Amino acid sequence: MPQQETNWVTLLASNDRRGGTSAARVKAPNELIWKVELADAVRSSPILRDGVIYVTSRNGRLYALDSRTGRERWVFQAAAAVDSTPSISGDLIFFGCDDGAVYAVDRTSGRMRWKAEGAGPIWTSPTIHNDSVYVGSTDGTFKAIELTTGKPRWSRQLEGQICSTAYAADRLVYFGSSNGRIYALDLTSGKDAWVHQAGDGVTASPAVADGLVLAGSEDFVFYALDAESGKVRWKLDTDLGIYSSAAVAGGKVFFGGKDGYLYALNLADGRTLWKSEPLRTLTAPPVAGETVVCMQTFYGGMQAFDVGTGKRLWRANLGGSLQSTPILTEDAVYLATYPGVVYALR
């Protein structure tokens, strides 16, 4: 059984949205610890806190599974399908739903604490910063909610769909929209700090590192924008659109493209360090560790590559997944596949 675990409390591991982890795993997972077949498809990513795996599914359920055994601890039923990756803060777990609401559930008991009503389906992962929850929805609404009560703080009605999970920094919150814009809004008021117009939709969730906002677009371009001004610091042209969010680790930026390549760029100047062998369409966010970068591929399951060279180290072909991100710990790998199977491997 796994002995050590790293808490993985939201999409891309933590609220810095960088997808980085200290877990080092060079060898392929070759032993099944457990697997659980859920009743419906999974389009979200699992998260981990204090020995419990939490995962949502298209049947509207939030599952709490024991990370060592896969045993079900509790199940919460929402009012509609759930594609949102949950986020944890303190004793609460938050997620969005196709009914347009944000739910806050007690992570120990599985009982609902509050429900913040909305309109359009929410596919993004709630972003927690200080005492607020920030979330965007497919009707173009972006809002801030009081963490403990679910009461609204502020709301903005924007153009296009918001499928990009936000990054919240000390003063600003960043996210993309299907109208091709990357927004930086004031955390306390929701007013524009700056807006960058890309050539097509931005579904990727931005990462922020070293004063740069990092996000790809369906216009085939990966952008590094100045976090304070929104000006382009550098950019990289690819051969197809970019849906994958970026991971940042060790001065490198990693993302997958619909052109089938996993890219590794130098964070400071955008120089291409390597790109993988062609893997066909890549849309899931990668996870970068000290020695490996790992991601789910639509064809070929979960794959891991050397962070320095891009050489493929191993593959675990457990079923295709469009968007789900694996959890890497020192002793176990947890992942969910689109058909609704959750695996624990070592």
Structure, described:
By secondary structure, the protein is mainly beta. The chain has a single domain (32-345), classed as Methylamine Dehydrogenase, Chain H. It is built from no helices and 32 strands. Strand 2 and strand 3 (52-56) form a beta hairpin. It is globular, with a radius of gyration of 18 Å. The mean pLDDT is 91.
Q: Regions with pLDDT < 50 over 5+ consecutive residues?
A: none
Number of helices: 0
- Please give the CATH architecture: 7 Propeller
Predict the CATH topology: Methylamine Dehydrogenase, Chain H
What is the beta-strand fraction?
35-45%
Terminal CA distance: 9 Å
In terms of topology, how is this protein built?
Elements (H helix, E strand, L loop, with lengths): L31 E6 L9 E3 L2 E5 L4 E6 L5 E6 L9 E3 L2 E5 L5 E5 L5 E5 L10 E3 L2 E5 L4 E6 L5 E6 L9 E2 L3 E5 L4 E6 L5 E6 L9 E3 L2 E5 L4 E6 L5 E6 L9 E3 L2 E5 L5 E5 L5 E4 L11 E2 L3 E6 L3 E6 L5 E5 L10 E2 L4 E4 L4 E5 L1
Provide keyphrases for this structure.
four-stranded antiparallel β-sheet; 32 strands; 0% helix; mainly beta; Methylamine Dehydrogenase, Chain H; 346 residues
